[in-house]
Amino acid sequence: MTGLDRSRSLDEATLRYLNRAFGRRDEVRQTSLFPTNKPERLVVTLDTDSYPEGIDAVSLELRTYTNGDFHVSYHEARAGDRRRCRWDRHDQPHNARDHYHPLPDAGTAATVDQSYATDLTQAIEQTVLPWVDKRVGTLWESTTD
Fold first, then answer.
1. Of 38, 59, 134, 141, which is most buried with the most CB atoms under 10 A?
2. What gap in Å lies between CA 9 and CA 45, rounded to an integer?
3. Total structural domains in the chain?
4. Name one Pfam family in it (predicted).
């Protein structure tokens, strides 16, 4: 657990619940719970059929802990370009406990304070999934310029 606060434990029950919930969504191509290369995560691969041509891959990666901390990352790849952003809840020196690292690289310098629902499943429904829907629209709009 290098780099992680040892006082928190992975919330496997919530990740299992989210794995089942994402597995029922039409826009999800596949889920991978605790993959060997990312054993503390749920990786959700989104179907790129609703994205403009040229978007090669889109995924969400989720980690959540029993102390309420979480990290949800959005990854987007096209023609060798990778973009990512991240919604976080954890204590650290650069921002409030709830914060967002925006595109294109989820860097700390551009991080903004946020306020998320207490429950991670609600934060995904109220914040992450609406952002993903808006991102798809933004990508389509950028192809018509």
1. 59
2. 25
3. 1
4. TumE
